[in-house]
Amino acid sequence: MHVYVYVTLFFPLAAVPLARVATTRLHPRHATWLLSAAAVVLAATSCGALGLLTMAALVRMPLLARLGHWSSTVVDSGDSTSTAVALIAGVLFGAALLATARFVTARTRALIDAFSHARGLPGRDSLVVTPEQGADAYTIPGWPGRIVVSSGMLSALDQPGRQALLAHENAHLNQRHYIYTTAARLAAAANPLLRPLAGAVEYSVERWADEHAADAVGDRRQVATAVARAAIAAKHSPARLTPAVALGAVFSRNGGSLTDSGPVPRRVAALLGPVPRTSLIALAAALAFVVVAGGCALHAANELQDLLSLAHHAVDPN
Amino acid sequence: MAPLRKSRPAQTAGGVRRAHGALEAEVLTVLWDADEPLNPAQVRDRLSGSGAGASGLAYTTVVTILTRLFEKNVLSRKRDGRAFRYAPVTDEAGLAARRLAGLLDAEPDRRAVLSRFVEDLSDNDEQLLRALLRAREEPPASDTGQG
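ok -> structure tokens follow
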């Protein structure tokens, strides 16, 4: 095998800078689209490359060569993959398939649960207000999805704040943000190097919803205040159950400056700043990166295919 | 042409619907917090007592919202003199949502399908936010954090 298959394996290493560029230089909507697409493409190409390496070793086995009617001598001469490399690739490929299957099962079950609970909540409105005093608010994906807000959260916010909260959650519902986050998490399950992209997608959908709320309320500062107040109120309510695990994993939580802080202060700071604009250069560069990754993978696949058809002709000249 | 789009009003159809949603939520909160069924005047008084923006609500608006919530089976009502007194139907919504939250929170995978408005804060994040809020609310009041 030649250089392309190995090059393909290296693209996911750029996940951190890619996430950084997208979250800082693109509008959150574009960042969400780009990052989730990039995650899926990079997961597919890197796992595909592992698959190709595994296959390149398999086709050299004399038994398979006889079954498949190709010449193992020709394959041997045209392919330099060592057995050790192929073995490692095979193990990684198997692990990736297993992790993907595990993720799909768990996430499908979670989504089915969410959908059925969204349907089971009383009333026909999208909004469900619970009498709890603890401040909490979340969106449940469903058909239709629902927004659950506790009384404690409503009383922690002023009127524009409540409007911001509802607009934010409505954006999650209407734009089906769970599809992007699920796609990115799927990619990260297949290739753990892509976890920074999944974290960045989860952050970007929150920013997207914040920007939508800012449009609806007509005042970015009101939304910033609402997010900050809600977060402080939520921190001091006993009702919140478990600490966040997955979200914001890209951003380390210690240190004193904004760049080191968790997702909520970053969201607030972004809302206090200017309206985000997409830098066309950054967008083009990120897209080019994804396209090149895809191209390398396709090229590697073509190489193997060419080699196999050559070997096929060698064994059966008529 | 471009400047016309600049002042993007929230009063589009969607904006009005959202505003109504927010008002309904506020009315519901008032009724959840109350120990007894309330009539529209009491609801209006408590609304203006709690929220800054809702103070200018007309009596008829409150009646409309209450009626709509009643028609959606969210509120029950009984006649008291000339007006109705309204109360939340049951704790049904709360129970169902709590059950759901407990269930979904149990596993990271289930948690991940919920989009929370705000994620949990570290102590450090909280200090940052309080600083940002203080910077925003310019009068140097000492503690403005929680509503």
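Residues 13-33 of chain B form the longest helix (21 residues).
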